[in-house]
Design a protein that fits this description.
With 289 residues, this protein is α+β, with helices and mostly antiparallel strands. It has twelve helices and five strands. Strand 1 and strand 2 form a beta hairpin. The protein binds fe (ii) ion.
């Protein structure tokens, strides 16, 4: 829950409830449980990615007003969407450089191989399998494996596509550093007509927040702060913990600042945590827990 990438979607109680529900259902389905633990053994990144995709999918599903049953189907689909990666050789899955065209083809096959795998499990709804089948399809028709376009893609497939890309580009991998959440959201917003369902993109950005928790921002007086609480009514005025003053001096004790009540100040932009000497998680734990 401290994961910056998750932003302010963590209406902890509600998400926990849905996840608990989901876990109960999945525990009834031994094969899916076995699949998930096999995935964790095979590739820890894909496992964590699947959990994140599940949380994001569920929060969009909730915003769309899905029933509990429908959320469960979506959640199972999200958790199992990359099962096919277990059938991709590890040296391709975690290759530090660019994939050759032949390797890329094998990587892309994780979709159909995953779908074949899931079809053999009893008790997984066909709609859940759509998530695996369609999460790499793109609104423009340039996705794979079937090149489906716009409305040919199911709502589950469209939700999973947005969330899958967001989690992938914000993740640190051997070969690249993850993008900071605000930049990733900007990218996804740029791609919204070409790759995604634009309405779902806007909904997702609202859920994560323009300035996800833990984002670093520069203020109009040049001081630097960390976002510690979102603002539901005015998302550009969150609550902050100011860490550096306007002259670039580290404050001996960070100061809380509620931008919704200090209208003379505003956020100029976000900063990459690497540009500044600050350990977000440590600061968070020290001053906020
Ligand atoms: Fe995938």
């Amino acid at each position: 829950m401290n994961d910056v990438r998750l932003g302010r979607l963590v209406d902890v109680k509600e998400v926990t409830e849905t996840v608990e529900n989901l876990v109960e259902q999945i525990l009834d389905n031994q094969e899916a449980v076995v699949g998930l633990s096999k995935l964790q053994d095979y590739d820890d990144y894909t496992y964590t990615h699947s959990l994140n995709v599940c949380i994001f999918c569920l929060s969009i599903g909730k915003a769309l007003g899905y029933s509990k049953d429908r959320l469960s189907v979506l959640g199972v689909g999200a958790l199992t969407h990359d099962f096919g990666k277990m059938l991709v050789p590890k040296k391709i899955l975690n290759k530090p450089g660019r994939l050759t065209p032949a390797e890329f083809k094998i990587m892309q096959e994780h979709v159909v191989r995953g779908v074949d795998y899931l079809k053999q499990l009893s008790g997984i709804m066909p709609e859940a399998i759509q998530v695996a089948f369609e999460h790499h399809e793109r609104h423009s028709g340039k996705g794979y494996p079937r090149g489906l376009k716009g409305e040919e893609i199911s709502e589950f497939g469209k939700i999973a596509a947005v969330v899958d890309v967001y989690d992938a580009i914000t993740s640190d991998r051997v070969y690249h550093r993850g993008m900071i959440p605000s930049k990733a959201l900007r990218k996804i917003y740029e791609w919204r007509y070409h790759d995604f369902d634009p309405e779902l993109v806007e909904m997702f950005i609202k859920i994560v927040g323009i300035y996800p928790l833990g984002s670093l921002v520069r203020l109009s007086d040049d001081s630097i702060g960390m976002v510690i609480e979102g603002n539901q009514t005015n998302s550009v005025r969150p609550k902050l913990l100011v860490i550096y003053d306007g002259k670039g001096n580290l404050l001996p004790e960070p100061k809380k600042l509620d931008l919704s009540s200090v209208l003379s100040m505003r956020i100029l932009g976000t900063l990459n945590p690497e540009e500044i000497e600050i350990d977000i998680k440590k600061t968070w734990d020290k001053y906020l827990l």
